[in-house]
Design brief:
This protein is of the alpha/beta class. It is built from eight helices and seven strands; from the N terminus they run E-H-E-H-E-H-E-H-E-H-H-E-H-H-E. Strands 3-2-1-4-5-6-7 form a seven-stranded parallel β-sheet, sandwiched between helices.
Length: 247
């Protein structure tokens, strides 16, 4: 038996990278998983197929979460198809890096819309479903850069810092309803997005990580799954998974 047998989960931004790993890890513990994505149909379908091949249940949940009605409509559709929603993992995120002096309004707004607004849209739509069920686990994926800042990432860092504050407020408001809300903040992680960083820069970054390597997506997924499966008395907390890069 898995730790999440019978639970229904939604992972946003789940077609690749950390989101994909989270979807697979939740499914391995018995959860039925909705795989959200915006445009990568083939990659999202591959995640669903992998879960089904392993004996699990998974569905596709396509939506542009930066759009309020699409995000909230997706939550309702997922709950109808799965028969409820017990676990929400807000993970969707993008980058539009540029120095603050050169950053356009559009680059700022696009990142905030996807990385922060979507968390509010999805969470606010999921809360009534979880309250009615008497159970809910919400895990928001932030970033180490939401605590440290990062050159060229004023928009990204602001969105990730906002997620941490949003998490604490939501946890406080929902504590008496058996809904926990926590944040997992990865450090530098081996994803296809990070693979685009020049090797010389990767080596420089790695030298600053006490554990001497980057995180694997599966390691982030295990932290998320712990909070969903075993974190009954943990709420409003920020868990760093970064190899000691920020303590």
């Amino acid at each position: 038996m898995g730790r999440l047998d019978g639970k229904k989960a939604l992972v946003t931004g789940a077609s690749r990278g950390i989101g994909r790993a989270i979807a697979l890890e939740l499914a391995s513990e018995g959860a039925a998983v909705a795989v959200n994505y915006q445009s990568s149909d083939a990659k999202a379908q591959a995640v669903v197929d992998e879960i089904v091949k392993l004996g699990g249940k998974a569905i596709l949940a396509k939506a542009n979460l930066a759009k309020r009605e699409e995000a909230r409509g997706m939550i309702q559709k997922v709950a109808e198809e799965l028969g409820g929603l017990d676990i929400l993992v807000n993970n969707a995120g993008i980058t539009r890096d540029r120095s603050l002096r050169k950053m356009t309004d559009e680059q700022w707004e696009e990142v905030i819309a996807t990385n922060l607004n979507s968390y509010f849209y999805c969470t606010s739509a999921a809360i009534p479903l979880m309250i009615e069920a008497g159970f809910g686990r919400i895990v928001n994926v932030s970033s180490m850069n939401g605590q440290t800042g990062a050159f060229g990432q004023a928009n990204y860092s602001a969105s990730k810092g906002g997620i941490i504050a949003f998490t604490k407020t939501a946890a406080l408001e929902l504590a008496k309803t058996n809904i926990t809300v926590n944040t997992v903040s990865p450090g530098f992680t081996e994803t296809d997005m990070f693979a685009e960083v020049p090797e010389k820069i990767q080596d420089s970054i790695k030298e600053r990580i006490p554990m001497g390597r980057f995180a694997r997506p599966e390691e982030i997924a295990k932290a998320v799954t712990f909070l969903a499966a075993d974190g009954d008395y943990i709420t409003g907390q920020q868990i760093n998974v970064n190899g000691g890069a920020y303590m």
